[in-house]
Amino acid sequence: MEDSMNISDAENQYIDISEPQEIQYWSEKLNVPEEVLKNAVRAAGTSVEDFMEHLENNG
């Protein structure tokens, strides 16, 4: 079941900010506002692992 996925399980996942439903999904999954999600993906890339590292280093 996808909804039970941990962030650690998402390391090989990618965030697609070109699709509104993807933005909403990842925003809720990662518990960040949509604008923060989009800005971090633009800065760090689409990998969930890179995204999380970016937030840790810049949060």
From TrEMBL:
InterPro entries: DUF3606 (IPR022037). This is DUF3606 domain-containing protein.
